[in-house]
Please model this.
Amino acid sequence: MLDLSEEIRTFVEGGIRPLSADEIFTRAHQSDEGHRRPNRRHVLAPLVVAGVAAALVVLLVYPQWGPGGGPQRAAASELLLFASRANDVPNLGPGQYLYSEMQTQGPYGGDRLDSGVTVHDYLSVTDQTWVNAQGYGRFVVTTHATPQFYSMSDRLKWLKAGSPLLPMSSPSSGQVGVRTGSIVPQLDLAPTPNFNVTDLPTTTAALKRALTSDLFNTEIPIEVLQCHSSDCLVVVKAAAILQGPDIGVTPALRRALFEVLAHVPGVVNDGKVIDHVGVSGIELSYVDRIPAHEEEVGCGHGVGPGNSNSVTVHIAASSNRFSFVVDPNRTQVIQTEQDPKPRNQPMLENPCFESSPTTYQFDPPHWVSVQSEAVVASDTSTTSTHAS
Amino acid sequence: MQGRVMGRAEEDFVRFVETTGPRLHRALVARFGWEDGREAAAEALAFAWEHRLELAEMDNPVGYLYRVGANRSRSRRKTRVLFPEPATQEPWFEPQLGQGLAALPERQRVAVVLIHGYGWSSSEVADVTGLKRSTVQTHLERGLARLRKHLKVRGHEHA
Model:
């Protein structure tokens, strides 16, 4: 017979089923999707107390709050604070380059595994850009072979299937493109846009008008094409310019960009987050809502909408959440992200012959994260010459 | 943010689950039994992932997560039998041990299982449970006396 101490330990340990990190990620992911709901009975009382307390704080601290206050007002305050400190502009001397390294996504792959389930994956891409004060330099795009997944549940499905080689995966990492010369713009190769902002106005009203025009529409085509409102255009372009890399940026322009963002209705402060490359910052976001609507699609060769040979297609309501993360110490935008909802969009492959969707298209999120940024001495160096 | 890749944050968290998770899991099993304790630990660790920034700045994240697990699972506790007798009884176990542990008040059971069973110090249990060390020691003594009495009444003698 064991002594009581050993017996208790052996007995209790014998009934413990270990928890794995994957199980925890899955549970947290379910929470993200709203599958794991707290019990109402236990949430209600704290909510009432918290609600009363919050109302008191609001009344005492922000008596002037009207409609559109709360997180939106918090976002405006944060952005105006960034505006007041937006002096951090790299100063490029002769022979110097601004080097930036960004992590983003390569092509999306919706891969059907032998088990019949589909996983949503992509390859990670690193964009390295060297640009001098005149807009010349070099950039290198490198694709990494290890498949990445859009959600932890995709990753778990892939692991459960025995980690098979996915069709999109290339056998090894490697450079997919190198280009030198003028790098503004480089539409054919650079997923990360480079902006020449020399001519942008620095008064908020004029800057806002410029951002709602066609300016930079081609440099950031993915996000801009999906914008429904003009406010969306302002948020997407201002955040992308603040992220850079840019030619001709000044403290006055950075200040004006933050001020323009502070006055966009609907921008909210999501608080402290960790970005996709593990750096923390303050996240601000804007949701662009696209209401359900009808679209006419022409069905005959050379026949456009409005003719008898066209059909009306119902497009369901959807939304796009645009967010950007700011390093509060340097007031640098370190990540921009677009997240469409619903992720699975119903598709009419041929609306002229189908009346209801037969397939669904996965609409993946898209982000660009700054991995490093420095002023360097040549277009091959990645080591800072001084603090940028 | 949605669609996070397996980056540095995830890797750090996997290490956290592997190193700290078992300790938290045992503490919650000691309090709530095998099934509900596991559920509480899973809830607490999922919470830890969602709030890793705040936790990174805490002095005693396990103590905090212990309370999170207890609070989150309180409303969903299902099992009345904390330590069900195994289908096949191992000859070296007291047949009434599970029942005896389950019969203890929660705090006494936590002290008995973690200190007497797993060899934690009373300070370590105090850190996790938020009780004073002297209180934990009292719970241990009373719990052990009660457990021995339970086993003795049922015909088993323990030192």
